[in-house]
Design goal:
Layout: H1 2-39, E1 49-56, E2 59-64, H2 84-95, E3 101-107, H3 113-117, E4 126-132, E5 137-145, E6 149-152, E7 155-158, E8 160-165, E9 170-175, H4 180-183, E10 205-210, E11 213-220, E12 223-226, H5 236-247, E13 253-255, H6 257-263, E14 275-280, E15 286-295, E16 298-302, E17 308-311, H7 316-319, H8 329-339
Antiparallel strand pairs: 1-2, 1-4, 3-9, 4-5, 5-8, 6-7, 8-9, 10-11, 10-14, 11-12, 13-17, 14-15, 15-16, 16-17
Amino acid sequence: MRFRSKILVGLSLLFVLCSLYYLDDYLSNKKEEKKQEFTKALFFKVDEVSRVSLKNSQGKFELVKPFKNANWRNPEQPSIQIDEERLSDFLRSLSLIPIQQELLGHNFTPNHSNQLAQFGLENPKTVVSITLQNGSSVYLSFGAGVEIGAVNDGKINPISTYAMSSTHTQIFVVNSSRISFLEDKNFLNFRSLRLGQFEGKRAKSIKIWYHSAFFTLLRNANQWEVQSSGSLPLDSALVEAYLLRLQGLTADSFVSKSDVQKAGLLSFDLGAPSAKIEILDENQKVLQNFVFGITKHGIYSPFPDGVLGKFSLSQWPDLVPQMKSFVRASKLGVENKKSS
């Protein structure tokens, strides 16, 4: 009995110690959260955000995440993919903006427009709003620059900016350089650069046009072949690699819809495109079309909403390959010898 009692006492002590350890860890985390809440312009946890809205000089846009494991989307253009990594980086930067100084005595409410006007906050130039998964919302607004700073061309370049937040009762000042990433952001900055959207396993044929040249690749069981050209056996691995390349096709950058409209499609060689690729399923239903124009500035391909993806010129042979690119190397060598 005495031995058993010692074991029970020991286990009880171990349980108490573990509880104290986890309690201390919990309280430390809470203390750190409280500290962050006081020192950061807008405190929130990035993984708990379900909606973000930004209004700035570029206009206004909104992104939403319907539930925890859902993909982000734009309610006005739900079919456009969002670059989730880029959005997470944006939210992380937003959550880390530090407060330089609070203006004691300058409490604010939405009705105090006269007080807000002196700080440029009655009609803020930049406003970001965050909704969390629990339904609560927080916002952060930026007003005028503080009239101290570096002088450039006779003008003062503010190094600080007045701001207010729903998580603080007083107007405060932030470093202008820490909020510059908000000034020129628009929806284009968060949409995915990925152009390829089809399922590769459903692809049964690939049609490739390049000026007057045209050929079709057909999948017969696990072997790819050229339609109406049995004399050219294909290396199926090369075709599958090309298909995979198109699936994950990602542009280097964007050309906005407004810039496309200003310059016109002819400026991007898309009036009568230089090349076209069609991916079809077993019922000859088009899974995805790729259209490519090429100029001295780069390669261009349109997204469904009129925005253009831009690629470097060096990618042309990979995007629009010739038929011989898929032919078995040994067979191609024989054909070359015959032709010589």
